C-alpha cells in the first residue's frame, strides 16, 4: 500500500513504495488463444471476481479528506492525481469491465503508536466506505456474509465488504475489535508494516517471535466472531502462531509466493504447505515489487546507489538527482507483466492446491499493477493467461470467487458453533492489583 496523504497520515511504507520512475515500457501481453479467452470469459460469467483488497477508501481520505458528497464513482478519472502523479485505478465502469462481482474495501490504518488515533481513523474509514456504498445503490450492495455476497452478484451488483488493514486499529482492545465487527468489518490484517503491541510484522524487527499471548486471544476472538484472520503483512512466525491458534480458515488478502519473489511480504512454502489443513487462501497480489524477483533486485540496487550518492554528496541534492538520473537511464526498471502474477498462482497451486488461491489486487494502494493489469480492468486478461496455461473453467471459478466464499462460510459456521461462548475478556496489560 502506498499512501498519498497529509503529513499526519504519512506512514513508513518504504518497502512497498515503487520507485518514482515509470516502469520500463513493455507491450501489454496479448492472449492470442481464442479457446483460453473463451474459457476465462465463461468462468468469470459464472463466478465473477471476488477481490480481497482495494484501497479506494484510503484514496478518498488522502485525496478528498473523505468529502465524497459530490464525487462520481462511476468515473474517477476526474479526481485530481496524487502528489506523485498517480491516477485512481478503480471506479464502477472499470470494475464492470474487470468482471468484479465482490470487493473487500480496505479500511486501512497506518502503523500508529497512538492507538486512540488509529481507532478514530478506522471508524472514519468505515464511515466513508459505507457512505460510498450507500451513494451508489444501483451498483454496490453492502455485504457481511457469503449469502449476501452471492445475492448481490445474482442481482448484478458488486458486493461490498469491509476489511481492516492494520491491527493498530483495535487499540489493543478486544472490546474495540467486537464493535468494529458490529460495524461490518469482516477481516483484519493483524499488522501493517510495523509490529503491533501484540504481533510481529514481516517488515519490522521481531519483538514477540510471532504472536504475544494477547495476540493469540485476538485470533481466537476473531474466530469466535466470524471475522477472517488476514496474515498479509505479518512475519512468518506470526503466520505460524496464527495457524496454530486458528479454528477457522485464514486468508492472505494480498500476498504472493516467497519462493517466486523473496519479498518478506510474500508467503513462504512452509506456510503454504499448512493451508490445506487449515482451509485458508492466498489472494494473489498485483504489486510488481512482490511479483517480479528481477524488479525486486533492481529496486535494492537502486536504493543502495541512492544511499551511496547521498553519503557522497551530502548537502548537495542536485548532484544526487543528476547522478540518479544517469543511473536510471543506464539501468531501467524491469517490466512486470501478468505472466509474473500467473507464476505465483502456479506455485501456490503446486504447493497448496487450487482450492487455496484467490485474487487480492491491492489497486489504489500501489502506483500501478503489471503491464496489462494496470487497473481493475485487467482481471479477464489474467484469467485468460491462466486458461492458456491449462487451468480448467472449474479451477478458474474457484480462484475467481468460489474459494473465498468457501472460506467465508467456514468462518461463519465456526462462529455459529461458538454462539454460546462468552466474549474473551483478556486485557493486553492487566491492571495492577488494588493495594
TrEMBL record:
Signal peptide: 1-22
Keyword Nucleotide-binding included in the entry's annotation: no
A GO molecular-function descriptor: metallodipeptidase activity
Entry-linked InterPro entries: Metal_Hydrolase, Pept_M19
Record's keyword terms, sorted: Signal
Top-rank lineage group of the source organism: Bacteria
GO biological process: proteolysis
Pfam family, one: Peptidase_M19
Record flagged with keyword Signal: yes
PROSITE patterns: RENAL_DIPEPTIDASE_2
PANTHER family for the chain: DIPEPTIDASE, MICROSOMAL DIPEPTIDASE
This protein's name: Membrane dipeptidase
